[in-house]
Design a protein that fits this description.
The chain has helices at about 45-55, 70-75, and strands spanning about 35, 40-45, 60-65. By secondary structure, the protein is α+β, with helices and mostly antiparallel strands. The chain has a domain at about 35-75. It has a three-stranded antiparallel β-sheet with strand order 2-1-3. The longest helix is centred in the C-terminal third of the chain and has 11 residues, at about 45-55. The termini are far apart.
Amino acid sequence: MSYAAPETTEAPIQLESLGLADVCDSCGAQAYVRVTLTSGELLFCGHHAAKHRESLDSSALDWHDETDRLRAENSH
């Protein structure tokens, strides 16, 4: 007798893009990084995301990084 693993029908989590209302939890600047932890979320500007990346990397469930928008916005 064999048992087949149940199929998962869960869609991947789609996070909304960070907007003007999303500000860095460290300094209040525009947030471009959302870090999801088991206890909640942290928002960071590019500078503070880089500063805290090493200390949060092992506990982060997701690291949503939109800092590429900074380069795109500055190239216009």
